[in-house]
Amino acid sequence: MLSDINEIYSKNAKKNNIYSGKRFLGYTPNKKEVWVTMKYVRDTKELSLWVDTGFHLLYKKGAELAQSRLSIKANSKKTKDVKRL
């Protein structure tokens, strides 16, 4: 079963030109969510990264870093309740 899933992912990766996604990083001291968004275009080898405002606040006292990895597709909406995931 795992090899079937890996084969599907491999086929999708070979035919797609753009790879993208979002990753939750944590909360600022004011409890604002901070996300990073990544986009890679295979043809041009261009890698773009965008970080939400507040990234520098993750180093401050009272900030909470993500306890587990939470990734979502780039075109999907951010979840309303990150703590439940």
Report a brief summary of the structure:
The chain is α+β, with helices and mostly antiparallel strands.
Description of the structure:
With 85 residues, the chain is α+β, with helices and mostly antiparallel strands. The protein has a domain at 17-74. It is 16% helix and 34% strand. It is built from 1 helix and 5 strands, in the order H-E-E-E-E-E. It has one helix at 2-15; strands spanning 18-27, 33-41, 46-51, 64-65, 71-72. Strands 1, 2, 3, 4 and 5 form a 5-stranded antiparallel β-sheet that branches. The longest helix is centred in the first third of the chain and has 14 residues, at 2-15. The protein is elongated, with a radius of gyration of 16 Å. The model has no long low-confidence stretch (mean pLDDT 85).
Overall geometry: elongated
* Low-confidence regions: none
- Percentage of residues in helical conformation: 10-25%
Radius of gyration: 16 Å
Keywords:
85 residues, 5-stranded antiparallel beta sheet, 1 helix, 5 strands
Topology:
Elements: H1 2-15, E1 18-27, E2 33-41, E3 46-51, E4 64-65, E5 71-72
Antiparallel strand pairs: 1-2, 1-4, 1-5, 2-3
